[in-house]
Amino acid sequence: MAHPMIAPSILSADFARLAEEAAAVAGSDWLHVDVMDAHFVPNLTLGLPVVQSLLKATDIPLDCHLMIENPGRWAPAYAEAGAYNVTIHAEATDDPIAVARDIRAAGAKAGLSVKPGTPIEPYLEILKEFDTLLVMSVEPGFGGQSFMAEVLGKARAVRKLVDSGELTLVVEIDGGINADTVEAAAEAGVDCFVAGSAVYGAADPAEAVRKLRAQAAS
Ligand code: DX5
Ligand code: ZN
Predict the structure, then answer these.
(1) Is 131 a catalytic residue?
(2) Which CATH class is domain 5-217?
(3) Res 47 pLDDT > 80
(4) Pocket test residue of 142, 146, 212 for ligand 1, highest count of atoms within 8 A of CB
(5) Is any atom of ligand 1 closer than 6 Å to the C-beta of 197?
(6) Does residue 189 have its Cβ closer than 6 Å to ligand 1?
(7) Is the dihedral of CA 9, 11, 126, 100 positive or negative?
(8) Domain boundaries, the chain
(9) Interface predicted TM-score (ipTM) of this complex, two decimals
């Protein structure tokens, strides 16, 4: 991968110091923001007011990963607020195309995410409505879990469609990305690597971002 992107996940940051934690990963391509509602996933994190404040605190494009039920109700507001990319879960809506169109109309890139057990084949036809495919490599809900290599087939399948010109899409992966797993994901054709604990658990988060990017490019 010539120009791998790294998206630190602030789920592993100190929520009381989000502006400083964003500054600590200056040079990152995207800042990944995990929105959880305690319904779609068994955890609760943050919502629109925090994203609105974060947008004022950093120039890094925000990559909002909505792990919420009824994403059509909320996703456009994240786009209107100024998020760069807004990703919804395929499992959370019966009408992903309508939500993607609303996100794009509100001015953001639209992403579709699939949980580890969700096959990609039923969604290949609708991926043209999206700008990003987020392949989950852990069960969504918590940081610090182990990477599930078995999801890489989904990244490979979509990479082929991108390389053949059938789709224009950023292939993103989320969960368990670290120095031991980033190369396998890169080899599968991933463009953008979300990393929470591997970045914010490091003594120097910006250096951790640079190292992951170099490893993904190797
Ligand atoms: C999990 C979140 C991830 C999480 C990744 O549901 O979507 O973005 O922060 O954390 P790590 O990199 O520690 O697996
Ligand atoms: Zn995430």
Answers:
(1) no
(2) alpha beta
(3) yes
(4) 142
(5) yes
(6) no
(7) negative
(8) 5-217
(9) 0.99
